[in-house]
Design a protein that fits this description.
Layout (H helix, E strand, L loop, with lengths): L1 E5 L2 E8 L6 E5 L11 H9 L3 E5 L19 H14 L5 E6 L2 H11 L4 E7 L13 H7 L9 H16 L29
Parallel strand pairs: 3-4, 3-5, 5-6
Antiparallel strand pairs: 1-2, 2-4
């Protein structure tokens, strides 16, 4: 791992594969470190001839943190961070993948720097437009609860497990005990071949 300085922030970055291969930049959403992009997935993509980059957004993992409730940045800044990561690694353009809130982050990056984005893939995200299904009441109740005391590790773990349950939206695995390395409580069989990006 290394850090890249961009937009007044220091962002922790990890890469997989050969930098000469086409790059996939994986960006996760709110409060989720790069580790939510499983290492096994990153290695599988790299084995398929892709240079994979994942990083911690501001206020996650080992990246720059701000005082609680007073972020020193906007969604636009986070979109520009994605481009700053490419700059810091010497990458001209990449396939951008945004999960959850990062769908907005990579969309900002693509809108502001279209020549730097080969493709844009949005996963479990929404633009929040009228006519689209809203977030479930269970999700809104849970995320609006204020969260755990950050000084209490047990409360933090309990909160994250509960959050993964409401993210699961009632799927059969959303009530199963969480397996190591899998945010939805299962250990899926690996695909027989990597995606053809």
């Amino acid at each position: 791992m290394r850090c890249v300085e961009t937009g007044g922030a220091r962002l922790c970055v990890e890469t997989f594969g050969d930098p000469a291969d086409p790059t996939i930049l994986l960006v996760h959403g709110a409060s989720a470190s790069m580790l939510w992009w499983d290492e096994e997935l990153c290695e599988l993509l790299a084995a398929g001839g892709r240079h994979v980059v994942r990083y911690d957004n501001r206020d996650t993992g080992r990246s720059t943190a701000y005082p609680p409730g007073r972020p020193g940045y906007t969604m636009r800044d986070m979109g520009l961070d994605a481009i700053g990561i490419l700059d810091g690694l010497g990458i001209g353009a990449a396939h951008l993948v945004g999960r959850s809130m990062a769908g907005g982050i990579v969309t900002v990056a693509a809108a502001e720097h279209p020549s730097r984005v080969v493709t844009l893939t949005l996963v479990t995200t929404t633009p929040g437009l009228p006519g689209l299904p809203p977030m479930s009441p269970a999700f809104l109740d849970f995320t609006g609860s204020g969260g755990p005391d950050p000084a209490d590790p047990s409360a933090v773990v309990e909160f994250i497990v509960g959050l993964m349950r409401v993210y699961g939206g009632g799927s059969p695995t959303s009530t199963s005990p969480r397996c190591a390395g899998s945010p939805n409580g299962t250990s899926p069989a690996p695909p027989t071949s990597p995606p053809a990006w």
